[in-house]
Amino acid sequence: MAFRDVLNIEVAAGNGGDGSMSFHRAKYMEKGGPDGGHGGKGGDIVLRAIEGVESLERLVGRRKFKAPNGNYGEGRLRQGADGEDVVIEVPVGTTAFDEDSGKVIADLVRVGQEKVIARGGPGGRGNSTFASSTRQAPRFAELGVPGRKRRVRLELRLIADVGLVGYPNAGKSSLLAALSRANPAIADYPFTTLSPILGVVERHDASGFPLDERFTLADIPGIIEGASEGKGLGLEFLRHISRTRLLVYVLDVTRDPVEELRQLQAELQAYDPSLLSNVALVALNKVELVDGDLSAMVEDELAEFGLPVLRVSAREGQGLAELREAVFQLLPDRELWAQQSALEIEPEEVVDAALRVVFREDAPPKGEGAPERVWEIHGGGFEERIVRFSRYLDDAAEYLGNLFKRQGLYNALKRAGAREGDTVEIGTFRFEYFEEEESR
């Protein structure tokens, strides 16, 4: 299976079911009371993190997900069934972004963690809800609310404790194999021919007995100059580094390790400056190819970066025990690190609670007569409320008028300078303003 770490999908939560406009009918009862039931809630779209899946490839072939709508309410106060949620299973380490805003809407770092990324619309209330002593036969009900639709970009960021950072052929794969007994293999990868490889490194005591301590080590495809600009593996490489608690810069002692480290840090800085604040050390690899004096001189030159430097040979096993122990000693606590590096999640959408009244003058038809005075209503939840009665506006007019009065709409219009006969506009709905409405 090909490795895929980015996938664009479209999701649509279910619409809420409409409330029922119904009246009780029974033998010997000529006029029964309202008995319309409520509509059911639409299904949510949910992301769930699972283990045992290392790629988003399993989702390829299905890019659109739609949750069922809630059922309509029925007579005899029967409520419509809720729509079932649609659960999309993704690998641990998946981050979801809203394509339009670019904001993070889910960040799944634990097995079993779930996040609703598109919430189903609530169902409408049946006409039984609106009965009162003065309104005994309401001939209107509430419509269900449409579910959330959005375009989502899924990004898989490997969950690894330690990431090996280095240019191609620096010896990262060999180092991973030597430290963890993993078997790095070349696999299909949409950007080059390499796939990230994970290994587990265990801690042992002086006698070689395994202790109950381990960390995961990621050999991520080699970085190249310009990666932060998307060249080569580019952002695909850097994305996987962002999850690691500790970075190991793997440098080839036979090349120019000082310049390579400088370039590697420049790429990290350009992509995400916070990566340079990660705990890090340097593994100066392939020391078996040079004499001890040269490797010691290079180690002294690397001291300017302020990082621990360990001379190793992945091929011959030199210095690996010291490197392994250094990582165990330096690795930050997982829970503390997770709290400090948590991504900011976009909050749930809420109705704009701030009521704003905006005045405008519209030109009269054919340029004749006085301009039309229009008052636009924004916020306060008025548009959301009136839309839910759009099918029954004439019958629900009295109910809505009293509701808007209680919520301060008429007082706000009067204070703003509305005159009798002015037009009030709430979304796509328009009605005429009368001052006597306030005294009803």
Describe it.
- The protein has 440 residues and is α/β, with parallel strands linked by helices.
- The protein has three domains: 6-156, Spo0b-associated Gtp-binding Protein, Chain: A (Distorted Sandwich); 162-337, Rossmann fold (3-Layer(aba) Sandwich), CATH 3.40.50.300; 356-439, GMP Synthetase, Chain A, domain 3 (2-Layer Sandwich).
- Helices cover 20% and strands 24% of the residues.
- The strands form four sheets. It has a six-stranded mixed sheet, with helices on both faces. A five-stranded mixed sheet has the order 3-1-8-5-6, with no helix packed on it.
- The radius of gyration is 32 Å and the shape is elongated.
- Residues 160-332 form the OBG-type G domain.
- Monomer.
- Residues 357-435 form the OCT domain.
Structure described in brief:
This protein is an alpha/beta fold. It is built from nine helices and 18 strands. The chain has helices at 172-180, 234-241, 257-271, 292-302, 320-330, 334-341, 382-387, 393-406, 409-416, and strands spanning 6-12, 45-50, 64-66, 86-91, 94-98, 104-108, 114-118, 149-156, 162-165, 197-204, 210-219, 246-252, 279-285, 309-311, 356-362, 372-378, 423-426, 429-432.
